[in-house]
Design brief:
Blueprint (H helix, E strand, L loop, with lengths): L6 H26 L5 H8 L3 H8 L1 H20 L1 H21 L3 H19 L5
Helix pairs in contact: 1-5, 1-6, 3-6, 4-5, 4-6, 5-6
Length: 126
């Protein structure tokens, strides 16, 4: 039988769990912000449906490519740093999306979350 973890260690786990939940929530909000306003975004940026669809799918493409290296990154830097990096990338993605002036910048902004997303979601099992 293993001894119970000290109380400070147990509370730390809840803090990390709460941070992870907030990061997941932010990840979802940032991804789901544009689709309800697709017509307005298209008109504002002056892009076609296909360009907007290409930009909205950028995160999934980059997520698939960056997930394996993200696992190694998490192992090397630790849970706290990788979760922080993923959260910062989600925030940067939101800021760049808000300032996008064309389809290429919107693709880049949504692609950033495809790099930060694996850091958030792969940190969860740890």
């Amino acid at each position: 039988m293993t001894p119970a973890a000290p109380p400070a260690r147990q509370s730390y786990r809840w803090v990390i769990f709460g941070a992870m939940c907030l990061a997941y929530f932010a990840f979802g909000v940032v991804l789901l912000a544009i689709p309800p306003m697709a017509a307005e975004v298209r008109a504002d940026l002056g892009v076609s449906r296909s360009v907007l669809g290409f930009a909205l799918g950028a995160w999934a493409l980059l997520y698939i490519v960056t997930a394996p290296p993200a696992g190694r990154f998490i192992d090397r830097l630790g849970l706290r740093r990788s979760l922080t990096a993923g959260s910062l990338l989600v925030a940067v993605s939101a800021a760049v999306q808000a300032g996008a002036r064309n389809g290429a910048v919107l693709w880049l902004a949504i692609g950033i979350i495809g790099v930060g997303g694996p850091l958030v979601s792969l940190s969860a099992p740890k």
